[in-house]
Design a protein that fits this description.
The chain has helices spanning 2-15, 19-45, 69-76, 100-109, 127-139, 141-146, 164-179, 199-206, 223-230, 273-281, 286-293, 304-310, 313-316, 345-351, 364-374, 410-422, 425-428, and strands at 89-95, 116-121, 149-151, 185-190, 194-195, 214-215, 218-220, 232-235, 248-253, 263-265, 270-272, 319-320, 325-326, 355-356. With 433 residues, the protein is an alpha/beta fold. It has a 5-stranded mixed beta sheet with strand order 3-2-1-4-11, sandwiched between helices. A 3-stranded mixed beta sheet has the order 5-14-13. The protein is globular.
Amino acid sequence: MRKNAGSHSGRMFSDRTWIIPFFASLLVSMSLVLTAIIGALSSSGGGEESPFDIISFPGSGDSSGYFVESDFERAFNASEAVKMEVPRFAYLISGTKGDSHRMMRTLEAVYHPRNQYILHLDLEAPPRERLELANAVKADPLFREVENVRVMSQSNLVTYKGPTMIACTLQAIAILLKESSEWDWFINLSASDYPLLTQDDLLHVFSNLSRDLNFIEHTSLTGWKLNQRGRQIIIDPALYLSKKSDLAFTTQRRTIPTSFKLFTGSAWVVLTRSFVEFCIWGWDNFPRTMLMYYTNFVSSPEGYFHTVICNTEEFRHTAISHDLHYIAWDTPPKQHPISLTMKDFDKMVESKAPFARKFAKDDPVLDKIDKELLGRTHRFSTGAWCVETSDGGADPCSLRGNDTVLRPGPGAERLRELLQVLLSKESLSKQCL
């Protein structure tokens, strides 16, 4: 018995002789694999930078990583840079009483099958007008097929001076995020806005841009504006009533905040999906804090996004101080800009901006923009996705082709020239100052 036990234990011991060679070979194999990985990383690090990263955004303590003009030029050179996937835009087009037809005209001028669109006609418009707008979208065969145009069923009362406009904008963004997960930039327009180039132009140029860029005109809130807007407390009756009325001003004044810096700028923005997700989902408490702060703030649309982006380290270096609009003002400027007419056409084109505002309803200059800048022969601006022949006056967009194919025109070159200026080191050095 003992002999058999001893022999069995001897066999077990002899079976374990493989352990030392096994672990030795395993150690050698792991060393070889790690050496290969490190070598691959170091060799790839010494190569050229990705042509897609037109601009990198370093931390505040590192200014050496800013955009270099040669990188920008290379990224726009189709022979040297592989283009990124064609982006998608998410548009909010808003209006009030009597604006439904203007909203449809703006929608058709900026329409492209790749994009998402949401229309908001505020509570001041009669129910019949809102119903007509919803029915016009629902009855359109192209909109039904692509399913990328929506009308907000819940109408809000919107006043420009109070927080209702920013609240409506955030609601529209939330709907867009819920309904579609495939868009890259959010753009807000009103019924009095109009494009100055085709969507093919815009998509072509943005195809070569970093998806991190936010176009939001901004400047520090200082001087008399800081005292009048930063200290003043208002109540917007539009939050509680069903008819527009003037803001109510309180006699109390608040102190200027010290934990964050106030910024102001244009209410018209082109914001990245990642930034608006930050504002909506609020994984950081700051966007919610700012929303409460701007609830009692004069002209909240001119400050909310600006203050959030410039006080958030993750996004402050992505803010490009331009709203991509051509806007003309009185001297000194009044609350609303000058209405654009035929005499402003050349200035609009020379601005190289993709959008302009504001326009009076059916002003003749819109027909000139349609003909000379947008190539509109029927409903939509010209685009490579329109593949029907125009023989006999047929609508070329009645037949939809591949929406990833683009046919950029002179508008793309104008926008490219504008972005060269906006993304220069000189312009980027003024971010959030």
